[in-house]
Amino acid sequence: YQTDIIEKYGIKLISWPACLAPMKSPSEFRVLTDLKLLHNTLVEGSCCWVHLSWPEVLQHVNEHQKHMESGNEAMGQKRKTRSDKGKK
C-alpha cells in the first residue's frame, strides 16, 4: 500500500474504520459484515480516497524510507525458497 498506491499514484485512503484495523485488502475479509461495513463507509464518504500534492507525496516517501531504515518494517515480502534450489 505504501509504495504501490500512495507513492505510485499519489492517493491515500483516509478514515479506514478502526474496527477493521489493520488495513488490508477487501479480498482478505472473512466475515461479510466487515465487508459491508467497509462498503458503507466508502459509499457514505466517511472513508475516502484523497489526492496528495507533490510535496505531500515527497514527505510520505521520506517518512516511509526513514521507517524502513529504522528496521520497523520488512523490506517487501520474503519469498519461499524454491524446492529445486541447489539441485541439478
UniProtKB/TrEMBL annotation:
<feature type="compositionally biased region" description="Basic residues">
    <location>
        <begin position="77"/>
        <end position="88"/>
    </location>
</feature>
<protein>
    <submittedName>
        <fullName>Uncharacterized protein</fullName>
    </submittedName>
</protein>
<feature type="region of interest" description="Disordered">
    <location>
        <begin position="64"/>
        <end position="88"/>
    </location>
</feature>
